[in-house]
Structure formats: C-alpha cells, structure tokens
C-alpha cells in the first residue's frame, strides 16, 4: 500500500489568505485543488510539501461567468465535470468542453479542476512511479537523479505535457489570471496568455513560480462561425491520460471558407505544440467543396512531419506518430461538422 507522508493542510477562504500562506512557507507549500494528481504524486514521493494549501473553499475561484463582450471566465477551482456539462461552455468553446469531458474518468472529473489541469505536472513512464521503483533505477533528472532514461546522455528532461485542456485553451487564445504577493507583501495580479505559460523543460514546464495562484481562465469570444473539436488517443477510453491529444479551432467566413484555423497537439513534448503548417493548409479552403479533402490531407501530412513522439510516456512512440495524421484528419472533420470529441471507448 502506498502511504502519504506527514504534512499539514490549510484551507484558506480567500485569495489573500492563500497567498499569505504561500509567501510564509515558500518552497515548503504546494497548492491543491481537487488533489487528483497532487495526492498520487505525494504518495510516490514526487512532491514533498510540508504544507498543502487547499483552494477548494475560495469562492472567487469557483464557477463560470460570461462577460458583456462574450469572454468566458472560468474560476480555477471549477471542476472539469462542471465545465464539460455547461451549455454555454459547450457552445462557445466546444473543444475545451470536450477535452475537459475526456480527462481521466467520471470520479476524477468531479474532483479535478480546470486550474489543476492547466497546472498539471509533466508525465514520464520513468518518473510517475513509486519511490522504490525509481530508486532501483537510480532516479532521473526530474527528481533526485542526474540522467535521463528517455534520451541517452540527455541533459534536459523531456517528460510530456499531458493535460488535455491545455492545447484547446492555446487554440482558443485563452488567458490566465494569476495572483501572488510581491516582496512588499502587496497582492499583485497578472494576466498571461496560455501560449506563454508553458516552456520546453519537462522538469517544470511552466513560467510561473510556486507562490503564484491561478485565479481564472479567460476564453475570448470566438468568431461568429467558430468550430472546434478535441481528439484524444489513449489506451482505455474510460480513464487514461492522452497518448496524443489534438485540439482544432476553425473559423469560417460568411461564404463558408476557412478564414482562420489553429491546431495544437499535446502529450508529445514538455509543452503543447502548435501545428502551424497544418493550420495554414486549411485556410482559404471550403469544407465540402472541391479541394477540401486535399487540404485536410495536407494538414495531416504537415502534422505528421512536425510531431515526433518520444518514449517518454507509455505507448509505442512509432504507433503514436502514425496516429498523428489519423487524429488530425478526424478532429478537423469533427470540428467542421460541429461534432466531437474524437476518441474510442
Ligand atoms: C487515474 C488518473 C487518470 C488521469 N487521467 C488524466 C487525463 O486523461 N488527462 C488529464 O489531463 N489529466 C488526467 N489525470 C490528472 C488529473 O486528474 C487532472 O489533470 C486534473 O485536472 C487535475 O486537477 P486537480 O484539481 O485534481 O489538480 P491537483 O492534483 O489538485 O493539482 C495539480 C497541480 O496543479 C497545481 N494547482 C492546482 N490548483 C492550482 C491553482 N489554482 N493555482 C496554481 N496551481 C494550482 C497543484 O499545486 C499541482 O501541482 C489523471 C489522474 C489520474 C489519477
Ligand atoms: S524525460 Fe523522464 S526519464 Fe528523462 S529526466 Fe524527464 S522524467 Fe526523467
């Protein structure tokens, strides 16, 4: 049986109280929302906080709101289940709602939150293991060791971003509101594009510090003819992390042609990657009209050229690569048809 180490829990009721605790405890504190990733990681000895700061009781972090200009504002502690089943989220940001609805399984979606998903640790088959297992192997760069088992001689961790909602939020141009205490003790807030949150370092793939609290996700109003879908490859349709995730956004013009598009893939590298050439292949073409099938094929081919899965997460990496064009094609078609998500059960 895997046991939790000893630690203390605080349950602040306000953002200010939470930030005060983070400032006081520094690196000894970690935030917890649903705890669906943090707690297993603590059992595996991957995270060792002395104080766990639960954000569940902070009202400001809860719920979905729509501003006058159509911006969707989602509190960081809103559950994945709540956004996946919210009619406004499903209508305005279908790819995001679909991705939230495919995270893990039903119980985990009822506990797991949007903020916890955005801030999820990277994953690797040599890292997400018990302490005993990792010790037998000699640990690795990401925790307690000095070498990488994925890239021989590698000096940088290449664990995979495995959060399903991240690529959809990137494709939607979403922004994140963070709060922290500055050195004078004042609470300061900043807004960061999701695009600018992630970096290519699997050891810690975010450009924010541990004392920064994610308050909300802001998704701007989509184009009038917005289409979106999420495609997810995984072993078991009922629960697993992605072996590959593909987010598609397509904006049609009045004539039905693709005016703008964005495709972002996850579960390949330490950060989600934008499939720029794939998106460009679609622009100017009209779904259902001559040339569309060729445009979709060109997008799939471009994605295949850009995506090079590594043996960082379970699943044969050559198979995962062969599935890239398959999921790109299917997810584009689902987006255009107003369908999705694309997955197997
Ligand atoms: C069996 C299993 C299957 C899973 N499958 C998937 C899957 O398919 N796809 C997927 O994406 N995930 C999956 N997960 C991981 C996890 O359930 C989800 O990612 C979930 O969204 C995490 O949210 P949480 O609220 O539980 O986060 P927590 O576990 O509470 O926290 C996760 C991380 O986010 C930080 N954090 C939480 N809230 C904030 C905040 N407001 N501000 C700053 N930092 C914060 C925490 O400090 C921690 O580092 C799976 C987990 C399990 C156990
Ligand atoms: S890629 Fe995996 S094995 Fe390599 S350092 Fe990162 S977690 Fe460790």
From TrEMBL:
FAD-binding PCMH-type domain span: 2-224
Keywords, comma-separated and alphabetical: FAD, Flavoprotein, Oxidoreductase
EC number: 1.3.7.9
GO molecular function: FAD binding; oxidoreductase activity
Flavoprotein as UniProt keyword: yes
InterPro entries per UniProt: CO_DH_flav_C, CO_DH_flav_C_dom_sf, Diverse_Substr_Oxidored, FAD-bd_PCMH, FAD-bd_PCMH-like_sf, FAD-bd_PCMH_sub1, FAD-bd_PCMH_sub2, Mopterin_DH_FAD-bd
Protein name, as recorded: 4-hydroxybenzoyl-CoA reductase subunit beta
Species, as recorded: Engelhardtia mirabilis
